[in-house]
Amino acid sequence: MRRILVVGASLAGVSAAEELRAQGYEGELVLVGAEPHLPYTRPPLSKDALLEGIDQTALQLRDEHWYAERGIELRLGEKAVGLDTTHRQLRLADEATLDYDGLVLTTGLAHRPLPPALRLRHAHQLRTLDEAERLSAALAGARHLVVVGAGFVGLETAATARLLGLDVTVLDVAAQPMSKAFGPEIGIWFARRHELAGVRLLLSASIIRADDEPDGTTTIALDSGERLRADCCLVGTGSMPTTDWLRGSGIDLGDGVLCDPTLATNVPDVVAAGDIARWDNEQFGESMRVEHWTNAVEQGVHAAGRLLGSRDPFTSVPFFWTDQFDAKLRCVGRPSIADDVDILRDEDARLVAAFSRGGRIRGAVCVNAPREMAQLRRAIAERTRVSDLTRDCTPATPTAAAAATA
Ligand SMILES: Cc1cc2nc3c(=O)[nH]c(=O)nc-3n(C[C@H](O)[C@H](O)[C@H](O)COP(=O)(O)OP(=O)(O)OC[C@H]3O[C@@H](n4cnc5c(N)ncnc54)[C@H](O)[C@@H]3O)c2cc1C
Questions:
Q1: In order along the chain (406 residues), what is the average pLDDT of each group of 10 residues?
Q2: Close Cβ partners of 326 (under 8 Å, ≥ 6 residues apart)
Q3: For position 50, what pLDDT does the model report?
Q4: CA of 321, closest atom in ligand 1
Q5: Of 97, 101, 249, 301, which cross-links 83 as Cys (Cβ 3.0–4.6 Å)?
Q6: 142 touches 167 (CB < 8 A)
Q7: Ligand 1 neighbourhood includes 291 CB (under 6 angstroms)
Q8: Best substitution site from 275, 297, 323 to test ligand 1's pocket, by max atoms within 8 Å of Cβ?
Q9: Does the C-beta of 79 come closer than 6 Å to ligand 1?
Q10: How many whole angstroms from 89 Cα to the centroid of ligand 1?
Q11: Nearest atom within ligand 1 for CA of residue 299
């Protein structure tokens, strides 16, 4: 291939570019990104970086020299707006076109459009470095933060703002935080942790009306009749795959870019990776899209290999983390597809839960419990029966796979 374009200059895109060079690809390699910054890592934007002050250089995935040394051309601040797969041409916002022989799609996620009641001038959203800088400046002068949406980013930001000394209220229509990912048991534990730290959680709460006030504050009226006044407001109501620019290109789209088990799309020499990619994960026998850091790295690497000729399927046991106060949650597997949950440990500072389907363990959540996490990760890969787990999370009877490696 003479020229490969990687569209989306972030975690999955940088991993793909790195792997292309590592596997000996010597042609032109161009990384196209809509944001003007060098690719950076996002998890600290709601955690340490928001707490300690945002240092753009510290957040960079790689410095400028790293790209130059590998002959990776950066086209930053350039948004892709269209793709012609017949003539193999990418169209940019300024009407320039780039030819390609191979293409890696890594355009990730964008905020879901806000419901009309929340289209506020004074509200913040958080996904990018620029948004984090604006939020950080607003928090510095604020006393009361209201977070709309008790998902991961909302709760992490709530915890950070509380550590910064703000009064914090979190609202959600759901009965428990993070309920879409885990169901109620984990949410109840985290609700308790937040309340102990002084965060006010208003759950099963609907917003009737929200207004920007002339003084820069926001008033939020709830169905309970309560009215909140916030001098900083974060709306975290979810994201969706950035596929709008691919419409009409002939690439199959659904909830993301639809890929086969190898991360190839339906169009030759076009692969996808990271938050945008929906693929058939043979490890779980289901189509999935994963919106987490480790997956973006691993898929970037795999998609690069696929473009260079590998036909291996990308199989994985998804993993992610969230840090809120001193609670370090690590999740492995697919809790959301489970039909049963066993709480193996529930203490003030630690929680261990195994999620099973048809009696076999399919996911696990561990808070401040790294040893149990490692054991449960193995149990998921080996499809251990939940009834075979001992209290310290090791299989009671070794599985065939474990016995073979013993
Ligand atoms: C605040 C925050 C905290 C997080 N914390 C955690 C955590 O604790 N643990 C965890 O596992 N994961 C976390 N994540 C998720 C993790 O950061 C993502 O899974 C990861 O960034 C996905 O990488 P990606 O490259 O697939 O997509 P993204 O990082 O979304 O990057 C996509 C890139 O494509 C660019 N782009 C979009 N459209 C175009 C276009 N048309 N043309 C050119 N470029 C385009 C975007 O500007 C963006 O830079 C967090 C995410 C956020 C936002």
A1: 98 98 98 98 98 97 98 98 98 97 98 88 94 97 96 97 98 93 91 97 95 92 96 94 98 98 98 98 92 97 98 95 96 91 90 93 95 91 84 57 41
A2: 349, 368
A3: 97
A4: 9
A5: 249
A6: no
A7: yes
A8: 275
A9: yes
A10: 24
A11: 26
Q: Name all domains of the chain by residue range, CATH numbers in brackets.
A: 3-110+240-307 (3.50.50.60), 116-235 (3.50.50.60), 326-405 (3.30.390.30)
**Cα separation of 310 and 321, whole Å?**
30
28: left (phi over 0), alpha (psi -120 to 50) or beta: beta
Q: CA–CA separation, 150 vs 190, rounded Å?
A: 10
Closest CA to ligand 1's atom 30: 108
pTM, 2 dp: 0.95
CA–centroid distance, residue 109 to ligand 1 (Å) = 6
Is 302 within 8 Å of 273 (Cβ atoms)? yes
CB 171 within 8 A of CB 148: yes
Shortest-distance Cα residue to atom 17 of ligand 1 = 42
- Three-state DSSP class for 182? helix
Q: Whose CA is nearest to atom 26 of ligand 1?
A: 274
Structural tokens at position 216: 């820069």
Nearest partner of 307 among 58, 11, 22, judged by Cα: 22
Residue 205 is encoded by which pair of tokens? 């709460």
* C-alpha 225 – ligand 1 centre gap (Å): 37
Helical H segments across 70-151, by residue range:
129-140
Q: How many angstroms does the Cα of residue 229 sit away from the middle of ligand 1?
A: 31
Q: How far apart are the first and last CA of the chain?
A: 44
